[in-house]
């Protein structure tokens, strides 16, 4: 695009000199230039359409390839490769066609550069001499300038055509930026001090876009500091939405969330999220050592960098203190019991996605990572739903060990996980059907029925 602009400037300079010498000759040349650019407009539009088609086809092909990789075991087991392979090959054939047509258009433009310039200039010279009886001397001087200008006019067309060939990808990026700008989260200006009192949901409701039924409706909830609150209910009851509201990833359509008395719309989300530890159902484990997996939350410091030089100027990390902190977090998560049995203890590499660990071990390692951050609030999102009985008991021991030390919010399907919670909130259709401790809820027939069904 910058080359396109520079070619325009050079062309205008040549035409300006030509006007100074023979304005009639230069005027005819200018009209010829405009005619050339007008004739190429359809070709430019065609190249622009090809660019858009190419970008869309690339998106389609990449989507097919990613889905194939993600579903590889299923596709291999059910012999679906031929069907997907045909779709990918068809996409490649279409892409090849688009690229071929773009190259043909560019070659066509380049091939016209010399003959078109010569034909137009000869035509103008003939008209000047035979019809307008112009003097030959200024024509010859202008001829050189116009010839150079015509060359740059074709170069302008070529550069603009190349710009059009890239416009499809550019438009996709611009649309994505516009979508992101429209979905920027609302940030308050108040930075939260360390959490110490209460989190309160006051008549909170939230409906996802393009849905008519609220995910959360009129929820009132109190989460005191250093207590354990459990959210219990079937799939679709709104448990995960409550967590997203709690972390301020979502903002209520109605009602207010107050953290130590501060309403959600005044809070700087980053200052609140730095105080949160989150253990999702699908744990994130990196192909690294146990120690490095636990210490990921060290506030942006290169925690395990043991290089002697320190070009960044940051304060060197005390490796002994860091090691003690890692061990403390692992012990609080009841993870040291299995870490000691690993070949290299804390320095054992766990493999891609923690392949060398069991499900329960990965969950306890994830809890240790969050405790290493020393959060004010620990959220456990279905931490035991995919585990066997032995692994679930290990996670329960980890949770029980943290009871009273830290504010915990637990999402659970299994009632055994939440038995010792200070408060249990039974959600149904986005509403709090009941709240209380285990004894209070167990006295309710509906809650007791669910417990008995799970035990059965």
Give structural notes.
The structure is a single chain. The chain contains 16 helices and ten strands. α14 (389-402) links the parallel β7 and β8. The strands form two sheets. It has a six-stranded mixed β-sheet, sandwiched between helices. 55% of the residues lie in helices and 13% in strands. By secondary structure, it is α/β, with parallel strands linked by helices.
How is the secondary structure organized here?
Elements: H1 2-21, H2 23-39, H3 41-70, H4 72-77, H5 81-131, H6 136-165, H7 167-182, E1 198-206, E2 216-224, E3 228-232, H8 239-246, E4 254-259, E5 262-263, H9 269-273, E6 276-279, H10 290-294, H11 319-332, H12 336-339, H13 359-372, E7 377-381, H14 389-402, E8 407-412, E9 423-428, E10 431-436, H15 438-442, H16 445-455
Parallel strand pairs: 3-8, 3-9, 6-7, 7-8
Antiparallel strand pairs: 1-2, 1-4, 4-5, 9-10
Helix pairs in contact: 1-2, 1-6, 2-5, 2-6, 3-5, 3-6, 3-7, 5-6, 11-13, 13-14
Relevant terms:
456 residues; alpha/beta; 4-stranded antiparallel beta sheet; 16 helices; elongated
- Rg of Cα set: 34 Å
Helical content stands at: 40-55%
How large a portion of the residues is in β-strands, by DSSP E?
Answer: 5-15%
Unreliable runs: 299-312
Strand order in space, largest sheet: 6-7-8-3-9-10
Q: Residue-averaged pLDDT, rounded? A: 81
Number of helical runs?
Answer: 16
General form: elongated
H and E string: HHHHHHHEEEHEEHEHHHHEHEEEHH
The number of E-state strands comes to: 10
End-to-end Cα distance, whole Å, is 70 Å
Largest sheet: 6 strands, mixed
Structural class: alpha/beta
